[in-house]
Amino acid sequence: MCHKKKSKALTVVLGALLLFNVMSVGASANGSEFKDVSQDHWGYETISWAKENGIVDGYLDGTFKPEQSVGQTEFLAMLIRAYKPKGFSEQSSDSDWRTPYIQYGFKMGWGGSYIVPPASKLSSSTKSEISEPRMYVAKLITNANGRNYSFDDSIRFLLDSGLSKGKTDNTVAGFKGNELLTRAEAVTFIRNVKSKLNMLYPSPERETAYDPKTLTFSPFEAFPLIVVQPDKYGPFSHITLTTPSAGYTLIHDPSYTISGTVQKAVGEELITTMEYWDNGEFISEKSLKTSITKGDFKTTLELSKPGIFRIVIYSKQENPPTDTPITTFYVEYKSK
Length: 336
Description:
- The chain has about 325 residues and is α+β, with helices and mostly antiparallel strands.
- Helices cover about 30% and strands about 20% of the residues.
- It has eight helices and eight strands; from the N terminus they run ααααααααββββββββ.
- It has helices at about 1-30, 45-50, 70-85, 100-105, 135-145, 150-160, 170-175, 185-195; strands at about 240-245, 250, 255-265, 270-275, 280-295, 295-300, 305-315, 320-335.
- An eight-stranded mixed β-sheet has the order 1-3-6-5-4-7-8-2, with no helix packed on it.
- A hairpin with a 4-residue loop joins strand 7 (about 305-315) and strand 8.
- The longest helix has 28 residues, at about 1-30.
- The radius of gyration is 26 Å and the shape is elongated.
- About 30% of the residues are buried.
């Protein structure tokens, strides 16, 4: 009996030791796994979170280089990986890993947050990464919140919305916009944004002034109504909108009428497109031709289902012959 009791006790001890070892290995595997990020590093927990969620993967030598300056496309990639947006694929059309991230950034209207934009919207201009100053990070995060402000206004937006506490204090000067962002600081930014922003949003093409009153607005509610009347590339239509009068309109009836006047026309019609916001991506719904009659235009849209629709009005352009967007706005349909 004594021998059996000793054997049983030994089995329990060995089992406990084995469980302890498994738990230790598991805890290590769930850590940062980077040999240059120890558990007493100030960013250890956040870097571990970023690694576990597939946001960062470090370098081939097993390091993370937490104090190295983050590159502009590296930060963009971290942001996109944190959300895994619908319609995004990491598959590259060329040998440059950055191409799909840059493509997505331009698709969402975030081009103003790049230090050196790519040579085209579909490719990158240089193979080397450019370090990211903090003010460009502020602008990119502001863009991803569906807004387009200057650098200083972007910093104010981040501070006011709690997306950043600044570097030395909660002021534009204290944010230290000209200083470079380290990789450890970058993942801290990403985690804070992820905790407050439910998805990535498209940014308005035109920069506007930051109004603190819009801080509680949704990204679409804060969208400005801008009618572009450029003539750089030759003649095209100039219009004034009567309806809508704002960049965002909430309606409770699926029929919505757009109207306005035409100061200068190219052709006899405008083109109106509708896209439906589907959890992070706009899905094309339909395109309508809107006749210009005695200097006026009017068309009624039938919204297919509750949700947010992006409406774009295009003008014909003579040189080169194409359709040019002259205004964009949002209509949200909520059934009664």
